[in-house]
Design goal:
Elements lengths: L7 H23 L2 H25 L6 E4 L3 E3 L20 E2 L7 E3 L8 E3 L15 E5 L2 E5 L5 E3 L1
Antiparallel strand pairs: 1-2, 1-5, 2-3, 4-6, 6-7, 7-8
Length: 152
């Protein structure tokens, strides 16, 4: 006589497959802000470091990066007196997606809108004896007076 139903092994395998799918697929559908914020922080870190390297390699250039709540990019014509410009390659511009914004604080907890680097790669227009921050939700890019730029 053949009995109908599932064996214990079949039930365990089914539960394992559902568990793996829930752990890998659910965050994609529900959205994971911390992963997106970390990716945005890493892009910001790359852009700020690129501008710092530009200042160190071309000492006759006043290299800076402009920061708005929605965009981080060099100014038009790489002239620090101009407004932010998104007319650069995508590796030089970071746009915050919906739900994200850039918030800056210097050592006095005051906001800043640009970072200008000298020929040694040090920020010359903001005071960063304690780390200055470009914050994106729960992650940040930190700058120190000596020129160190790192994820914090």
């Amino acid at each position: 006589m053949k009995k109908l139903g599932f064996t214990l092994v079949e039930l365990i395998i089914t539960i394992l497959v559902i568990g793996v799918l829930a752990a890998t697929v659910a965050p994609r559908f529900l959205g994971n802000d911390s992963e997106e914020a970390t990716a945005l922080r890493d892009r910001t870190l790359q852009v700020v470091r690129n501008v710092q390297l530009r200042a160190m390699q071309n000492v006759n250039d006043t290299s800076c990066v402009k920061i708005t709540p929605s965009t981080i990019a060099p100014p038009a014509g790489h002239d620090c007196s101009n407004a932010v410009s998104t007319a650069f390659d995508s590796d030089q511009v970071v746009n915050a997606p919906s739900g994200f914004s850039f918030q800056t604080t210097d050592e006095n907890d005051a906001a800043f809108t640009q970072i200008q680097f000298d020929n040694m790669g040090k920020p010359s227009n903001i005071a960063c004896n304690t780390p200055c921050e470009i914050r994106i939700k729960n992650v940040a890019v930190c700058l120190q007076q000596e020129g160190a730029i790192y994820a914090c």
